[in-house]
Design goal:
heterotrimer; A alpha/beta (about 625); B alpha+beta (about 230); C alpha+beta (about 160); B: about 230 residues; alpha+beta; 5-stranded mixed beta sheet; two-stranded antiparallel ribbon; about 25% helix; C: about 160 residues; 4-stranded mixed beta sheet; 7 helices; about 50% helix
Amino acid sequence: MPSLNSIRELEHMRERLQEQRQNITTTVMVCGGTGCQASGSQAVISAIRDELSRQKVGPSVRLCVTGCHGFCEQGPVIIIEPGNIFYCSVSPEDAFEIVSQTLVQGEIIERLLYTDPVSGKKIQTELEIPFYQAQDRQLLSKNLLVDPCSIEDYIVTGGYSALTNVLNGMAPEEVINEVKSSGLRGRGGGGFPTGRKWSECREAPGDEKYVICNADEGDPGAYMDRCVLEGNPHLVLEGMMIGAWSIGAQKGYVYVRNEYPLAVKHSRIAVEQARELGLLGENILGSSFSFDVDIARGGGAFVCGESTALMDSLEGKIGEPKPKDVHTVVNGLYHKPTTLNNVETWANVPSIILNGSAWFASKGTRGSTGTKILALTGKIKNTGLVEVAMGTPIRKIVYDVGGGALNGKQIKAVQTGGPSGGCLPVDKFDLAVDFEELSEAGSMVGSGGMVVMDEESCMVDVAKYFLTFLQDESCGKCVPCRLGIDRMLEIITDITEGRGRPEQLDLLEELADTVSQTALCGLGKTAPNPVLSTLRYFRVEYEAHIKEKKCPAGVCKALITYSIDPNQCNGCGVCARACAYGAISGKKKQVYVIDSQLCQKCGICRSECKFNAIQVA
Amino acid sequence: MLQYVNVNIDGANIRTPRGTSVLDTAIENGICIPHLCHVSYLSDIGACRLCIVEHVINGRSNITTSCTLNVEEGMVILTNTERVQKLRRNIAELLVAQAPNSRAIQDMAVRCGVKEVRYPFRNDDCVLCGRCVRVCTEVWKAQAIGFVGRGKDRHVDYPFGIRPDFCKLCGSCVQLCPMTITPCDGPMKPGEERLCGKCEAQLIISEPTPGSCVWCKLGEGFGCGRYA
Amino acid sequence: MPPQTLDQILEKRRSQPNQLIEVLQDVQENYGYISEKAMQSVSSGLGVPLMEVYQVASFYKAFKLKPSGKNVLTMCMGTACHVRGARLLLDQATILLGVKPGEVTTDGLFSVEHVNCLGACALGPIVSENGSYHHHMTPGKLRKLIETLRRQETEGKDNA
């Protein structure tokens, strides 16, 4: 592709592409994101491609392999326009029918439609599915329109027009003011006002400046950034370009965590394509703006999501956070002024420029504007990526979007904000997804992870899980984090193993408070949050573990016993064969018995038993 | 040309060169903020968190380490409030529970007001203060030892665990190590670790500042040797 | 991509200390682990002190300092997977293979790793085996997977 030397040439290219695609009447969008790939969408894509050529379907039908649609549990997912037809759990064998019936003849295949788990009815279009209806998919819907490996797809749908607006006649201060007025706050967890960050960086002395996209997304249970970067890398690049231009940066980096190979691959392709077209490099589109981007991979360290540690990692060093007495917008990468923002933050910038700050600020609450992508997972019917306006109550997300509890259990809590966040009980579900509201309640919006827990989740075990995670990921430099988390974990382990003493709860709280005040970086400072929030709202569970030596949810191994219900057991012996410790004995067609001395409570028998005969108490 | 700034530490107005840390300024002026990983001729890393102070700014007070905080005109610092004392005491408690077999750590704990240790004692022989690593890297520029691993697994080691030939056995690391100062009665037997507290002496490894001691109340609270 | 030699990996990056992590990533991909010899070449090739190379290699989980098993089973320990019982999978792998996470079985066939979130949370629990993701795993399915991989190994040997 020849390089574009002016804005006019880009506009011409867009017009030409639009003309070329005028004859396309039907588009079939197959999700090629990591989630659907895990469910086998690659085979589906090949099968459809083969069928399209076998059935000699003409150029009016276009196959587009898109990024993540967000409804991963239903994958592989296909959407067909016109008609907004939504097929889920598609297998390669369905390709023949999909092509011959739906694409060629416009007929719907009933069995591939989504069944609403609440009403039991089949739903034809994506927009009618309750999961999608309750959302406001400003960013996620863009994933459906583009093949992430095609810059032409991005351009033909209007991509890079925000950049041209900026280059065409906006002053850097104007752009920064727009971002300020929009109220956009960091989407990675910090919630820092983006416009202010850009403005401080712009004012910092020095000619050499950097912009960084933080795609380290270390929060377990969060995959929003993966979805946006994998599915629409050009959107992120465009945001970075606009930011770099306003701040005066010449170089940018996208720091992608090592565990996201597809995001790395797609970002690299996107950068290559942008360079080829002259959208990255010297004198972009004939302007005086020169800017280039490199993709860097993380090495597998959650702590490198912290901005000073990330910058150290970019410099080839270990990720040890530095005290924040000096701000990175003044002294950052290679000691130069640096603006680091999250993937989702950058992705929001182009639409703020195109639609205006007032449009963005009209959504959400006064303090938290715009939309936020959440990763809704756990014990609910509909899991996946969800984009809602800030200010949406948790209740709506869990029940209207999430469809409520799985398997008729009782929902007990929602964990938000990853390991830095906290657990909120059901009576707090009227709280909105708002930076301040959730922080005051002892949790946080964080990067957007939202894990729903039910009566089978032990809240003490949840606190233990997060402490274990943080202990694994701590850099180890400072005493409160390294030793403090270790001792908190020691106490909680005592509690989950039946050695808890009442005075330990007070010690736990005091230690948690000390760590939160004295740790060097955000990881350490927020490490006590899961402990503090579960103590605040679920203290009764801690007390049951300590006083009665019981785990009400039936999770903590030392406090539960596995037994076989003689009324349910049908003597099939599957459990005995599955048991790796020889703890189950019995004869065929007779009730089997678990020897509690040998039983290690690993749970394999329970997951293998088809008759629900294994009891946990 | 040395530029000076005026700061207020614990009510005392102090004139100090720009670019100095709050900790250095305080020690220079007789305010002995407890510290472990700080050594005057090595870089400050803020790892032990014992030197924390309250930095009063914009109506709020932030807890921060004084070794990594540089003085600025009009800065207000409080080194010995109840809040800071409690936090410091808890950190010292964590340290002595981890490594009781060091007189420096024992003294530090008592000096910071630790009366009882509420955690089971362990018997580590390194508290990762980083003094050894920094002297080898910054003074001798040998980089024969360094921090290896992460989190709980973080420890000081040679490359591949083998002493390289560019380590000249100068002994600087051993000299600076707080763990090499053992309790007076000798090492405690495993299982019999306790909070010793016998010496209540001024920490031996902090720099003596004979000329600038102001007999501050801080010293009384810390069991400073001058009050004994 | 064909396997690269150390020289090829270092080409174009010589004397650039900030490329250390990228170089080590490539070494890990090509050799399956970072050997002492590799670290020494990287140290002299990039101009980074040996202690720093060792420090970086031991800090990041992506880098293994010992060779892995032929089949690397990576269990996701993210929150969503944990809530759906990922702990049981790790225990099952440990019991069946007799190795702890990070270790290799004596026959060199398997090693077990755990990772803190692969980003496929809606499909958990996830076990990744040599790059392919297996979703909605249960201890039973894991046992079958291990048996299949073992069988492939013996069949491969028979055919050789």
